[in-house]
Design goal:
Blueprint (H helix, E strand, L loop, with lengths): L1 H19 L18 E4 L3 E5 L3 E6 L4 E6 L4
């Protein structure tokens, strides 16, 4: 039983070490200034951004399509 647990632990460690190495470099192409800071989602047509007081909808060229902002009371 101990041998089985050790074998399982070693195989899981090896799998985790292999999964962490992707082998490619990622570079930031550009930075887009947007009013939202809390979240982003995307579908095939739009980006959706959110912050504490508003929701923003952008097309894939980063043109603002629609916004809904709650005013301070």
């Amino acid at each position: 039983m101990k041998k089985l647990l050790i074998l399982l632990a070693v195989s899981l460690f090896g799998t985790g070490a292999y999964a962490q190495h992707l082998g490619t470099k990622y570079r930031l192409k550009k930075v887009i200034q947007v009013p939202a800071r809390q979240g982003i989602a995307a579908d095939k047509d739009y980006f959706y951004l959110s912050d504490t007081r508003g929701l923003y909808k952008y097309d894939h060229n980063w043109n603002l399509v629609q916004k809904r902002v709650q005013t301070k009371d």
